[in-house]
Amino acid sequence: MIFSSIGFIFAFLPITVFVYYILEKNYSAFSIPFLVVASLFFYAYWKPIYLPLIVISAFVNYCIGRLVSVEKDNSIKRTVLSLGILLNIATLALFKYADFIFENVNIVTGLDIEPLNLLLPLAISFFTFQQIAFLVDSYKGEVDDYSISDYFLFVTFFPQLIAGPIVHHKQMMPQFSSSSKQGINLGNIEKGILIFSIGLFKKLIIADFFGGYADVGYESVDHIGFWGAWATSLSYTIQLYYDFSGYCDMAIGAALFFNINLPINFNSPYKALNIQDFWRRWHMTLSTWLRDYVYIPMGGNRKSSRITSRNLLLTFFIGGVWHGAGWGFVLWGILHGLALVFHRMWTSTGLKMSKYLGWFVTFMFVHVAWVFFRAPEISVAFELIEKLFTPDLADVQNVIQNLFVSYHMTPILLKLDGPVVVLYCIFVLAYTFIGKNSIQILESEYIASWNVSLVAAAAFVIGVMALIGSKSQTFLYFNF
To answer: Any stretches that span the bilayer, and where are they (predicted)?
Structure first.
């Protein structure tokens, strides 16, 4: 089940909210367990066979966390923690990386190891990282004595379960014990409807629209030219942003119905003025996790510049691999690690760059790096990038001649070599660069105004109309 589905919007979500508040008012002890059951149903709706995996994972990690919390012998604590982390990483590696490893071992050694062909369980990357953080913090004595039902809800809470954000136990578990005392909060419901509607619009009207161009372009890189390359790459740059940020908006909105505040995961990352700023704005919960549980434990920036550079590269190598088993993800992570190393070197010299040039350089780097993230093969990525920076003078002349020529929509939708898709991209990116993001709208003092209500209603109606007429499609980050 996904957020952008008729079943979720008009059945699962309203029924779950209704039953939850009935239980909270009359049988409060059952409200949290009910949310756990509802969340597990939400997860199993996609592929029931993997329901035992998340249940067993949550139960085992809860027991390990409790054990390292109460154990007095430091040697035993370290051993149990190490085994717990290894168990989580091994489970993730089995389902996500085994076939990639076997494939490359076969290439290097000439062996013929058969792939396992295991279907990637939804959300395994997200709930694995969440639970590793729980184990580490339990070892440090930073976890309170929460009930098993609270822990299961922390892992499985359906608004954030499938594609994040990567929530931290300190952000979520205290809310579960206090939210049941708040009752129905009409202000939260109003905000939830608003941001959910914005997210639905982002996903179905913007992300899916440009996703069609991106898919066609990446499937036919050999047949597109300069303008087609820009249309393809910019379309994916837009699709990924609005797909993932749209999902996060819907997650925040759905959680607000239960008086739960999920952490913000996006803060207009394409407005970033440097690569460090970008990572403070893009997938913020992943950035925080990598900083707290990878970069800082390795030493962070507390030692020499060489060690700091190594730590950055390793951290973003892990960040790249976390997204998927493929050399494109590895290279994407390394590129961002190198960019951060270069940024540190640049700032250490005291040199300055205008904010406009800084924004342009940052956006262009992020945009080009996304090509490796999306391309089916490394060779395809390099071919597309070559076309990005190899303008065809005849193409440019045709563009100038045809800018004001009337056109029909259907041929344009199929013609990636024209400038029209690029113009669409520029239009959407222009708003992305200068407009308010959904969180700013949500926190605006005009939240209760008729204008905002009308915007929410329009976004919801347009989104549902698009949903009715569209094919079923998952969110991009379901694949990661």
So the answer is: 6-23, 30-46, 52-68, 80-98, 118-136, 148-167, 312-335, 356-373, 412-434, 446-468
- Rounded percentage of the chain residues whose pLDDT exceeds 70: 88
Tell me which DSSP letter residue 473 carries.
-
Residue 1 falls inside a structural domain: no
**Do 168 and 233 fall within a single domain?**
no
The model's pTM: 0.89
Answer with the one of 150, 181, 212 that is the final residue of a domain: 181
φ/ψ (deg, to 5) at 268:
50, 60
φ and ψ at residue 37, rounded to 5 degrees: -60, -45
Closest CA to 192 of 225, 163, 166, 159: 159
| Averaged pLDDT for residues 319-333 | 93
Tokens standing for 314?
A: 């390793």
Q: Are residues 198 and 144 in the same domain?
A: no
Length of the chain in residues, anyone?
480
Q: What is the rounded distance in angstroms from the CA atom of residue 399 to the CA atom of residue 379?
A: 28
73: pLDDT strictly greater than 80: yes
Instruction: State the pLDDT at residue 135.
Output: 95
Q: Please give the Cα distance from 207 to 425 (Å, whole number).
A: 11
- Is residue 412 predicted with pLDDT exceeding 80? no
Contact 233, 384 (CB under 8 A): yes
**345: domain range?**
189-479
Give the pair of three-digit tokens for residue 348.
Answer: 């250490």
Verify that 154 and 210 share a domain, yes or no.
no
Catalytic residues: 323
Q: Which two tokens stand for residue 392?
A: 């065809």
